[in-house]
Amino acid sequence: MKKILILSANPKNTSNLRLDEEVREIKNTLQLSPNRDEFQIITESAVRVDDLTRFLSHHQPTIVHFSGHGSGTDGLALEDNFGQMQLVSTQALAKLFDLFQSQVECVLLNACYSESQATAIHQHIDCVVGMNQAIGDKAAIEFSVGFYTALGAGRNYEDCFHMGCTSIDLQGIPEYLTPMRKIRQRRYQTVQATNPVTSHKDDNINNDNKSWQNRSVSIGGSATGSANQTGDSNTANINFQQVSLPTPASVNIETELNALREILAKLETSDRRKIDNAIADAEEEINKPQPDKNEVGKALDRAFDYAKKAEGFASVIEKLKPHLTKTVGWLGENWHKLLSLVNLTI
If you count DSSP H runs as helices and E runs as strands, how many of each does the chain have, helices first? Predict the structure, then answer.
């Protein structure tokens, strides 16, 4: 049975959203589905920041669905003890889901400008849905209806996402391109979509949406939020070896990433999944028509941040050197710091 935990927050000092209607529509949709006995819906409203870890620990959900206000890179709007808005930061959310990656399969952030949070959470959760701009209340509800209609029919998360976008489109709402998803296909490659649901419709649609609120919030002086970073570090006397980097055009980056992945796979570490996820993110980026080298570098930085903590990391440094040298040559000067991980410099 898949547990769906729906978290909602509509602080007193934010515009009123129709969150109860969204919960009702999700329940009705799954109740009418042929596989309704395979799902359990748990709802928690007026969610405070302190509630997050408790709800995730207690309910142990498979899917986490957040409904409420977003504020871009500043975070998601939850409530404080007085019902006022309190932000939970992007970094804090990522760290939270790092703790629950073994049980949570999918996170759906039904809030405006939540793409930043989705990207950060995707470091640890294989399927994350967010919004790349402001989204109206009605569009957000329609997305949920489509998403859970597909889920109740036994479709995979990729299909659920497309069905959600199509549900918005069918209602004539020009926000069907607002949802975005981040999915690691390797986790779902055994479940093939027979007919992926897509939509190609002109954007010039007239839609009267004046009675519906946007799920965004402007940040004023009353909003609060914080995140702490912790970690261990080891010091040692190291002699660095100077190397020359190859030209980017001479590097087959697919081959080098594959070599790095195979070498790091030999490490015995509790962070195995985190390393694999980060390498998968790098591979996903280089397969795009115009890959962002900085995004590839960030993913590798995460992978090595976990790998260097493994007890046997020192034993694979020599094997890593030639492949990391070529990789850094492809990435460019912004990522020369990766060389120091294997005692190299330029």
Answer: 10, 10
**What is the H or E stretch that residue 322 is in?**
helix 317-331
Do 85 and 77 touch, CB atoms closer than 8 A? yes
Q: What CA–CA distance (Å, rounded) separates 150 from 145?
A: 9
- Higher pLDDT pick, 215 / 233: 215
By CB atoms closer than 10 A (0-12, 13-18, 19+), residue 320 is: buried
**CA distances, 5 to each of 13, 52, 177, 195, 273 (Å):** 25, 11, 25, 28, 24
Q: What is the pLDDT of residues 273-307, one digit of tens each?
A: 889 999 999 999 999 999 999 999 999 999 998 99
Report the C-alpha gap between 127 and 160 in whole angstroms: 11
Distance CA 61, CA 108 (A): 12
134-153 pLDDT per residue, tens: 999 999 999 999 999 999 99
DSSP state of 46: S
Cβ atoms of 140 and 110 closer than 8 Å: yes
End-to-end, the C-alpha distance of the chain in Å comes to 54
Q: What is the C-alpha separation between 151 and 145, in angstroms, rounded?
A: 10
Backbone phi, psi, residue 89, to 5°: -75, 160
**Helix 272-286 and helix 293-307, axial crossing angle in degrees, nearest 10:** 170
